[in-house]
Amino acid sequence: MKKMRGGTAGNIAYTLALLNAKAAVVSAAGQDFAEYRDFMTGKGIDVRGIKVVQNEFTASCFINTDQANNQIVAFYPGAVGHAREVTLASLGLEKGDWVIISPTDPESQRTGIAGVELVREGGDRLGRQARGVERGQNSHVHDPR
């Protein structure tokens, strides 16, 4: 078994940083976040928007793959349930900035900042939409103007 850094927001921010683009993550992490925070900061990723929840562990996904490539996936949400307590307003976003909304609590996916473009990365939402949980919601691009 091996532990890998990841998470949709972390992966997107890392890729943007490799392209020399300004990247920040807004979410919640657990008491075990210090090593990943150091890695992100070292890559130039702004982590001021990550709330550390001391009595929780960071969300984790465990994927078990057998020799025939069948997979069993287990997800532990941990601190991500606190993501709705963090706001984008504190990051100083301006008209023309872009925000990529990645899988998280749908209630935490609102900015309320005029002129800020939202791009929804709908990876985890596709399954919920297929089951009818989020029918009628746009999971791709939203212009708040």
Task: Give the topology, please.
Layout: H1 8-18, E1 24-30, H2 34-42, E2 46-53, E3 60-65, E4 71-76, E5 98-101, E6 117-120, H3 125-130, E7 141-142
Parallel strand pairs: 1-2, 5-6
Antiparallel strand pairs: 3-4, 6-7
Can you walk through the features of this model?
The protein is α/β, with parallel strands linked by helices. The chain has a single domain, classed as Ribokinase (UDP-N-acetylmuramoyl-L-alanine:D-glutamate ligase, 3-Layer(aba) Sandwich), CATH 3.40.1190.20. The chain is built from three helices and seven strands, in the order αβαβββββαβ. The strands form three sheets. Strands 5-6-7 form a three-stranded mixed β-sheet, with no helix packed on it. A two-stranded parallel ribbon has the order 1-2. The protein has a two-stranded antiparallel ribbon with strand order 3-4. Mean pLDDT is 77; it is low at 130-145.
Summarize the model shown.
With 145 residues, this protein is of the alpha/beta class. The chain has helices at 8-18, 34-42, 125-130; strands at residues 24-30, 46-53, 60-65, 71-76, 98-101, 117-120, 141-142.
